[in-house]
Amino acid sequence: MAILELRNLIKAFGGLRAVDGLSLAIEEGQILGLIGPNGAGKSTAFNCIAGVYPPSSGEVYFCGEKTNNQKPWDLCRKGLARTFQIVKPFASKSLLYNVMVGSFSRTKKRSKAEEKALAVLKSLHLDVKKDMNSGNLTIADRKKLEIGRALATEPRLLLLDEVMAGLRPTEVDEMVAVIRNLRDSGITIFLIEHIMRAIMALSDRIVVIHYGKKICEGTPKEVADDERVIKAYLGEDYGVS
Amino acid sequence: MVFILEDTINGILMGSIYGLTALGLTLIFGVLKVINFAHGSLLMVGMYVAYWAVTLSGAHPYLTLILVIPVMYLFGYYLQDIVIKPIFKAESEVREPITVIIVTTGVWYVLDNLTLLIFGPHYRTIQENPLRGKMLELGGMLISVPKLWGFSAAVLTAAAVYLFLQKTSMGRAIRATSLDREAASLMGIKQFKIYNIAFGIGTATAGIAAVTLVPFYNVFPTVGVLFDIKGFIIVVLGGLGSIGGAILGGMIIGVIESVGPQFMAATWAEGIVYGLFLLFLFVKPSGLFGVRYDW
Amino acid sequence: MTRENLQKAFLTLVLIIVFGLPLILRSPTYLHILVLLYLYAYLTTSWNLVGGFAGVLPLGHAAFFGIGAYTSTVLYVQYGVSPWFGMVLGGVLASITGVMIGLPTFKMRGAYFALATIAFGEGMRVMVENIDHLGPFNINGPRGLQIPPLNVGLANLMFTNKEPYYYIILVMLIAVLAVTYFISRSRLGYYLNAGGEEPEAAMSLGVNVARCKLIAMAMSSFLTALAGSFYAQFSLFIHPKSVISLDLSFEIAFIALIGGRGSIVGPVLGALLLRPVSDFSRIYFGATLPGLHLIIFGMVLILVMIYLPRGLQQPLTKAYNGLLNRLDRRSR
Questions:
Q1: What are the structural domain ranges in chain A?
Q2: Residue of A88, A104, A153 lying closest to C190 (CB–CB)
Q3: CB C279 within 8 A of CB C92
């Protein structure tokens, strides 16, 4: 069964359709990549899935349940977690504090939440920095913290919004390894990414959208060879043949 | 019946002056996304400047506009530049810095009490006042002349600010900053310069309101508080950030205050204003027009 | 001594001093000032639950103070109900009102909440000033209510000496500090901080931000109302301008902010440092330099917000921790 399914999802802001009839499905345990030029509607699609905005029409199914109008916090408890394109750490607080906010979604007990948060930090090799102020982290560590916080909520599906943007090549490799590990631990992953090397290496399947519409879907190889994708990225004038 | 019409007209006139006092509040909120709690105190400063200008020179009260507008513009410009800007710089990542609201409240306390310290608590009125108690008779109704001038000033100022924002390149830069300050600064617009200018213009409009009030209103150190609270109510009624809404919201308050006492105790009319405010917050928080910005 | 033991010793010392103070300080005037000092510390700490942790700016807390003062006073004077009961009832009423204001405004920009609380506080004062009789209750409009000093005793929360008041407000202050301490370490505390700082991120992590703020608001308004009842019994006279004034609302908020919002000791420190400044300047300069203490307040507020956004507690906590560390090292 698909863990997440979108059926003809539309999100309009005024006259502009940021997401325009998007349908897709992710099987449990997969990594699905979502790519498209800037302004294609990728983050808007994520926001609809995560309950930030209700879709204008169409349906979102999470674990077989229609979740169109559910709130982000309810979806979180059902096992959906996400990161933000522009990271949003609780900047005046320590890393441990940040991750504990996530782990409190599964327990009321402080000791348990702390234990869980420490385990998550350790798995991301952030445990040595646990008492640092999260506002003082490097970009790479902020992105990792963002993932750590989401992981602490024990998600079944993780939405990653450009977690590799702004990272150095070695950091990208490290992040790719982190994401692979997550998948191996049983978490389904849906990611938006601009770094092609990473998304090609990671994804089982890739969906390409342009002006809110799906223009292509397939394995990384199929997508890379698709003429429409090349046009969307490089413009109509670019001769392919 | 004629009384009610007379009260309504006078209410609209006085209300438009309330709207004028709130104009700067809504403008500054639109650009900086901050409620300027010191706005009433700025109005008070404007009233003292106008009062002393008239008293010392013996000029016609409205002539002091030549002095009050530039003085208040500079006062607002440098207040933002020196006192408020450091907070924005320190919290550049914060969407809506509550700390800025707090600092403007500090400014309010300092200005009001400094004025109290220097000029004392006395109520002052202009002695050589050609407009005092002047009434216009219109079909059996008495219309206050200084309020009529105030109404004209309110409508003209609102129109001028609106046109400035729409038609000039500086106005466009201000609007761009208000919509998206990051994007605007990427386009080469200097965010803090715009903040200074917007604050200056907002303060200058408070100065205009002050000049229209001085001929018929007492000047005292805490006069701003009264207009401050009214201003808050007006901008929520009219929609935070809306220029037309500020004037219209002001008129509604003015009418309630002047017509209300025909039917109930005057202080109850004040209560109704607060009730209306809370009702709006519950039912239609975006204000009368339901728009965030009309410019 | 280890760090923990040093901290315990320090805390014990403070407790011994505050509980022993009335034994040395017999002057009713000084005790009176101290009672008001603790009352302010209590109010700012209660305010901090919503103004500090939840990251919003309530500027109408005097309304809750007034609800508490009027509820217990009306019930006691007219119906002979013990003020202790009136205190709790006032707290519940204030709590309900607080939630009513938060409900529509917590979902909007912070400025709306600040404005709504101001309008609510002012609207409340205007209402009380205009009403003599509210149903069967006589609230006596602008003239206020007096509590006849008869039947003194603990049951009626009324005493001829200042000492009992001193101990009651002290216990209340310690209690509200303990509540703050436990909340700051609980899930609710984490959720409030997270929701105040980055609401969108907090929501995605399972935090129902608006609901957490409502809970904080309910607690804060409840606790504030208790202080209102205490104040009524302490001063035996209340009127709208004294218990529901805008000045009081602002003073509570500003003392907390200057001391350090969101920290546990900040609001108390703020009260300890600023109340004496305003008492002193009112006593000595009230006639010659009116409003001096408010100018000082305003200046301090501006400077603190620019240079010490986490309040005066920031450097003081640092110094305290430094001292503990040095003692800790020396003892080893």
A1: 2-234
A2: A104
A3: no
Hey, what are B274's tokens?
């607060």
C-alpha torsion C246→C248→C251→C255, nearest 10:
-140
Alpha-carbon span B38 to B66, nearest angstrom: 23
- Give pLDDT tens digits for A164-212: 988 899 999 999 999 999 999 999 999 998 888 889 889 999 999 988 8
Domain residue extents for chain B: 9-223
Residue with tokens 């399947």: A205
Using an 8 Å CB-CB cutoff, list residues of chain A that contact chain C: 50, 52, 71-73, 76-77, 81-82, 84, 88-93, 97, 100-102, 104-105, 108, 110, 113, 149-150, 152-153
Torsion angle of C-alpha atoms A88, A117, C203, C52, degrees rounded to 10: -80
Strand partners, A10: A20, A57
- The pLDDT of residue B97 is 67
Distance, in Å, from the CA atom of B29 to the CA atom of C246, rounded to the nearest integer, reads 22
**C306 interface with B at CB cutoff 8 Å:** yes
Structure token digits, residue A34: 């979502």
Which residue of chain A has the CA closest to C207?
A73
What pTM was estimated for this model as a whole?
A: 0.90
- Residue pair C65/C188 in contact (Cβ under 8 Å)? The answer is no
This model of the complex carries an ipTM of 0.91
CATH number (3.90.550, 2.60.120, 2.30.31, 1.10.3470) of C3-18+34-331 reads 1.10.3470
C-alpha span between B202 and B23 (Å, rounded): 7
- For residue C57, give the chain B residue with the closest CA: B98
Q: What is the mean pLDDT of chain A?
A: 89
Which residues have CB under 8 Å from C207's CB, separation 6+? A73, A101, A105, C191, C194, C195
For the segment B56-62, the average pLDDT, to the nearest whole number, is: 89
Q: Report chain A residues whose CB lies below 8 A from the CB of C266.
A: none
What pLDDT, on the 0 to 100 scale, is given for residue B187? 76
Dihedral of CA B124/B129/B131/B134: which sign? positive
User: Can you give the pLDDT at residue A237?
Assistant: 53
The CATH number, out of the four listed (1.20.120.450, 1.10.150.20, 3.40.50.620, 3.40.50.300), of the domain defined by the range A2-234: 3.40.50.300
